[in-house]
Amino acid sequence: MEHSEERKDIRNSPIQIKLPLFIALALAAGVLIGANTFSPSTTNPQDTAKSYLKFRDILSYIDRDYVDTVDIEALTDHAITEMLEKLDPHTSYIPAKDMAMARSYLEGDFEGIGVEFNIFKDTVYVITPLSGGPSEAAGLLAGDKIIKVDGETVAGTGITNEGVFKRLRGKKGSKVNISVMRGSNTKLLPFTIQRDKIPTVSVDVSYMVGDKTGYIKVSRFSANTFEEFKEALTGLKKKGMNQLILDLRGNPGGYMDHATRMADEFLAGNKLLVYTDGKGTRYDSKSFARTKGDFENGPLIILLDEGSASASEIVAGAIQDNDRGLIVGRRSFGKGLVQMPIPLNDGSELRLTISRYYTPSGRSIQKSYKNGTEEYAKDMLHRLESGEYFHPDSSLFVDSLKYKTSKGRIVYGGGGIMPDVFVPRDTTAFSEYLSQLYNKNVMREYALAYYKNNQKQLEKMSFAQYKKSFDVTDKMLQDMVKLAGKSEVEYNAEQFNRSKSLIRNNLKAFIARSVYGNAGFFPVLHEADEDFQAALKQFGRAQKLAKGGV
């Protein structure tokens, strides 16, 4: 798995483990502005006051009389976290020390050295220096191993992603000294890098598939997402696009207003996009299409999978329920609880669930959590065990979960967005050998080495030439297998042959990324992408929807 300075693989404490679950539910809409000031409970004030006094008394007794010295603040944080576990999976408490990390998930930009990295075998590897960033300017290369930061050894010390962020991030203009090991050279190379503001990107790529089909991949809904999306959409229209694939697979969500603005680009008039419903009416709201969008006509397909959550589901639900486009893929995650961020007096924050998202037809996006947080966390495993990744789960298609779109099409609730066209996971080319190649970055490492050894020849080719004529040869595969052996990936002939076609595709894609960036990587990768290929075959049906049919 890749990480950049703004993409974190949070580990260790329970609160850190829970961070990814609720970060993407931050709400930027004006619904919650001014709603987070403290006021006493009016629902059950006597019991609330009694419980508060009880908790205060217990803390006082522990602090004064307990046999050992106790960190009262840490104990309080633990008690709060355990208490919130009894509510829902997304109500959360963030201690003051974790707030900076939590906010960075949705910041439009950050200040640091600008590298995407991975920790492998207790060593920080540079995956890529971010384009235009200070690390690229200083000369860091993909594959470099960061051994020291400001004289402190960070290799072989058990460093975590959080530890890397702490050392590499910093104020614009500040400097950090880094020592890296490059290739097989054991001599450390020193770099002094001046930190700068690094823009984060949420539109991974946009490109034309043939003469008329556009493709845009949005990886999250952050502070700059709508502007990036709008720019990509405009660029594709100038190239002749008249039908679009919007890829929201693996998109965990983010800011609600960027989701509704994106949906508005596809919907004419003042159609309902999403609404929220909470206790009473205080946190109830409705969002409607308001502006003339840039793609209100023309076939539209949205790709979803089990990793698409929150804001992604808002977009997909608005499009599906208004019969504007076709949803292709698998059932989305089902994250539809709205959190209100409430700052506390010590710098910590409570993110309290105050309402639910509903699609225009009335479907709750949120999947069930009645069996507790632990079972909720295992939902993806349960989907795998039930076979839902390979065929639609019939238990979800029941009359009690049946809803109708604006033109009377039947859609189903049950948590998440059900696709109009189900695409099963294709596992025919997957194997444990392939998994090990991914886990140990073997294909990426080989592709980078191949690029360096053939850079001049590759850079003379246009991407169109590369895509059409470049082949991953058997000799290249053999060389990669040798490299895998050095990385302790044991060769398995049967598994290798099963995965060979996908390995060829991935190697070609990774080499393309080194030469052409994401604009080369994704078009090659999509040649073996079953979801993408299935979407291309559905434009006839999407055209019918675009023209008002069902």
Automatic annotation (TrEMBL):
Claim: Protease is one of the keywords in the record: yes
Keywords: Hydrolase, Membrane, Protease, Serine protease, Transmembrane, Transmembrane helix
UniProt-listed Pfam families: PDZ_2, Peptidase_S41
Membrane-spanning intervals of the chain: 21-38
CDD domains per the UniProt record, alphabetical: cpPDZ_CPP-like, Peptidase_S41_CPP
Classification via InterPro entries: ClpP/crotonase-like_dom_sf, PDZ, PDZ_sf, Peptidase_S41A, Tail-specific_protease
Database matches in Gene3D superfamilies: 2-enoyl-CoA Hydratase, Chain A, domain 1, 2.30.42.10, 3.30.750.44
Domain PDZ: 98-169
Keyword 4Fe-4S: no
Family affiliation: Belongs to the peptidase S41A family.
Name recorded for this polypeptide: S41 family peptidase
Native organism: Pontibacter populi
